[in-house]
Amino acid sequence: MADPTDGRGARPVADLELQGITKRFGHLTALDGVDLSAYPGQVLAVVGDNGAGKSTLIKIIGGVYRPDAGEVALSGERVAFSDPADARRAGVATVFQDLALVEVLDVSTNMFLGQFPRRAGWLVSRKAMDAQSRAFLDDLKVTIPSVKTQIGMLSGGQRQIIAIARAMRTGAHTVLLDEPTAALGVRETAHAKDLIRELRDRGNTVICISHDMHLVFDLADRIQVLRHGRVAGVRETAATTSDEIIGLITGSSSDEPHAIARSE
Description:
Layout: E1 16-25, E2 28-38, E3 42-47, H1 54-61, E4 69-74, E5 77-79, H2 84-89, E6 92-95, H3 107-111, E7 118-119, E8 123-124, H4 126-139, H5 156-169, E9 174-178, H6 186-201, E10 205-209, H7 213-219, E11 222-227, E12 230-236, H8 242-250, H9 256-263
Parallel strand pairs: 3-10, 3-11, 6-9, 9-10
Antiparallel strand pairs: 1-2, 1-4, 4-5, 7-8, 11-12
């Protein structure tokens, strides 16, 4: 697991920071003054019960939603994404739970959606696209019949791995993963975890939403708990337990002084 400090006892500069993020849908407040800091070379797990605001938070970072209040900053610079493509251009890649893959297109085309290689300045180079996709997936030990196979013909686990690989191929510095191992088998879960470790080891900032406490404690450097749209607590993984995290999720453990101290 990555060292949470820079080697001198000080925390490195955050790659992504959220301050006071609030999002409402009509009379429902999905997020209420949420702060978040995520660091290069670390995995931040965001956990909470259904309705805690996790998916809304990811969609704000990924450019799907605009916050009603609060600020988002990348490397200290305030940003305001108008859509997911805007976020991707800024170096933020999101693997949503529905994957956002195009099932009628093949693996290569999905890997390069929005970033097609060109030939003669304007034509898409299919040969280059296939060769680069194959080389990239081979390097990640991703096993599929062919890069020309339609996404819809792959298993759910293969599609999940392709979605994570696509996020890695874009060169994004910040990668958001929404339930990356949901409904995966044992072997596919192990592969997905390997890819997440690879992202972290490459120096990426990784934010992972998951209900799987085994995954969280296996991969995360820090854990942020949301409850009813607010931050219930933030913990270094090595200094907490699953019982404490579950207590923060359910509300059986109070963390108000801790949360206030971290926001100052």
